[in-house]
Design brief:
The chain is mainly alpha-helical. 65% of the residues lie in helices and 5% in strands.
Amino acid sequence: MARAALGVVDANANARARARDDGAGDRAAKRAAGRDDGGAGRLNSNSSATKRRRSDAGRRADDARDAREEDERSARASGANEDARATTGEAVAANERQRLPKKFETLRATSEAALVVARFMRARGQRATADAMCANIERSTGRRCSLETLRMVAACAPAGTITFRAKTSRADDLKNIHVDVDLGIEEGSSGNDKAGMVAMRAKMAAIRAKMVMIVANTHEGDAYDASAAPPESWREDFDLESVPLPEPVKIAFMEDSSRDGPRLLSSTSAPLLGEASTSALGRGGVSEGELTRAMSDLGPDGKGISARAVQAVLERQAIVEAFNDPSAVADRERRRLHGRLPHVFDAVRTAFAARKRSVMELDPLLDELMHTNARAEISAHELADGVRILARMCPEWCTIVHARHGDEELFRIVSRDPATARVARAKLAKLCRDAA
C-alpha cells in the first residue's frame, strides 16, 4: 500500500513536470512568433517609406517639368506680344501718317458698327431692314443714323459691301428697304467663329483703305492715279478737313425700276384715292372728245368693247394720275405732318420737363424722341420735319438756332409760361383739325 501511494506521488510529480515543460514551450513559441511578426512589420514599414520617397521624387520631377514648360510658353507668348506690339505700332504710325478727316473717322466708326450689327442680326436670324439697322447703329455708337447715313457708308465702302433692295416707292418707308451687307463669310454662316472675325477685320481695313483713296484723290488732284498706292503721308499744307464726303449711293425704288406709268395704289390708300377721284371728276371727268379719240385709237381691237367700259378705264386713269400728281403728293405729306404736330409738341415738352433744361442739341433731342416714342408709326425723317415745323409754327414757345461754335443746331424753349404753351398747342391742334 505504501509502495502504491509512493507510485501515485511520483506520477503526479511527473505530470506537473510535463505541464511546466509544455508551458515553457508555448511561451517560447509565442515569443518567436512575436519576433517574426515584428520583423515583418519593420520590413513593410521600410517598403512603404521607400515608396513614399519615390512618389515624392516623382512629383518633384513633374513639378520641375511643368515649370520648365510654363517658362517656355511664357517666353513664346512674350515674343508674340512683342511682335504684335511692333505690328500695332507700325499700323498706328501708318494711320497717323495717313490720317482721315474727322467726318471720315466718324463715318468709319459708323461703318464698323454697321458690320457688327449686320453680323449679330444674321446670327439671330433677323431681317436687316433700314429702320432696324439705323436703330441698332444708334444704340451702338450713340450718334444719329439715318438712311442717308447708310447710303454714305455704302459709298465709302468697297463696291458690293453694302447694297439696298427697296420694296417701296418711298424713301421714308425704312421697314421696306432691305440692307444687304457682305461680311465676307460663307452663306449660312453666322460669322461668330474665328474665320468670321478675321473676315470682319479685313472688311474694316478695306473700308479704311477706300477712304484713304478718296482723300488721296483730293490730295493728288490731277496727278491722282487710282492704280498707284496712296502717298505714305499728306503734305503739311494739305487742308485735310476740306476733303468732301463722296456722293451717297442711289437706291432703285419700285416706281423707278418697275413701271413708268401711273400706279394703282393698295387698299390702304383707298380713302385718299377716293379724294383724288372726286377732284379729278370734279374737273369735268372724261370729255366726249377724249372718249372718241380713245375709241378710235383702239381700232379693230376695240370691236365688242362698249363706250361705257372705255370711259370707266379713262376715268380710273385720270384718278390715278391725279393721285400721283406731285402737288397732290406734297399736299398729303403736309397734311400728315400737320396731323402729328400735337403729338410732337407733347413729346418735346415732356423731354425738356424731364431734363429740367431749356436748351438741347437738336440731334440728341431727335434721338431721345425716337427712343421714347418707338411704338409710334413715324420715321426719323418725319420726326425731324415735324420738330422743324413746330419751331416754325410756334416761335413764341420754341426756336431752332445754330451754336456759336461748331455746326450743331440747338433747340431752345423760348418761354416756360404755361399760358404760352397752351396757346401754342391750341394753334397746332387747329392745324391738325384742318389737315384731317
